[in-house]
User: Fold this.
Amino acid sequence: MAIYATPPKSAVLLRRLDELDVLRRYLAQYLGDSAEPWTGALRRLAAAETTVASTSIEGYGASLEDTVEILAGRHPSSTSEETQRIISAYAQAMDRVTVLADDPSFQWSSQTILDLHFLICHPQPEARPGRLRDGAVVVTRGLGRDPYRPPEASEIPVLVSEIAKWLASGDLTRHPVVRAAMAHLNLVTIHPFRDGNGRLARVVQSLVLAREGLLRPELVSIEPYLGRHTREYYSVLEAVQGLGYDPRRDASPWVEFCIEAHVFEATERRHWLEVAHARHDFCERLAGEHQYPDRFVIALDQALFGLPVVNADFRREANIAGPTATQDLQRLRRDGWLDQEGGGRSIHYIASRQLRDRWSASLER
Assistant:
């Protein structure tokens, strides 16, 4: 059995990949492993965006705010327990990607793919986590659209082995974004599992990119783009797949789509970074103006960024004791910079109108 072949290079796509490489190197200066502590909020929000986008594509919707809470180990009441389990499982798989990204002994194998599927789908026994499907499936595509028929179950072990072999040694001279796109296409097209194939394909794509070693997995993922352009995502997949498994079909439209998604997301991340620089400078000036300790900048910056400030997170990032964190956050509340929400263990703080207005005014100068 064969898998889809990587399409030939084109001058247009090579130029776009060069643009992407420039953007990625810029981001790596500030968001790589040696990044400043204040960029942690950027990475947390990127991880939440990646997780909520990939899981929502398959029908497990949650707000970005709730996803941030779930990834922090908390349990927001506004999201169902089932969705929380799916989100947590996906996050565990992405945590595994982070570990494997710089593991010098890592080797691609069929077992790698099975293990990642287990992590993603372990809350869903009906998906047979970590086990290849043993029966035929038909992938529906919506009202009025013809379904897609993946390969027979008997062909799946050989195809998964072929994908793993290609990941280990195939097309190694091609750009990682192209290889990641082809890994995604091949996995989602052979549909090796009962459920979770899309999530698995997107996680494997992130692992291919993370092995590049430039940026953390959540910062090279295109899940946010796919979540916002789901119809286009499915449309290009359908065009490349046809009605039944045929790896002779041209994968060029899919690769082009993925490259454009990467350029868009990297551009968005660069904008994030530029705004983050300005916001952090503003918070430092505000803290200096009111003679606050330097650690107050962490809470002010996170609140302005739109992430809830929780005592446990603040004290960990500021390396202070719980009572000190409580005093700090209450002081910022009394001074009008933070608003308190929730009660008991669900207490958190958000940017007040006063803080948001000062920040907006600073941008107009």
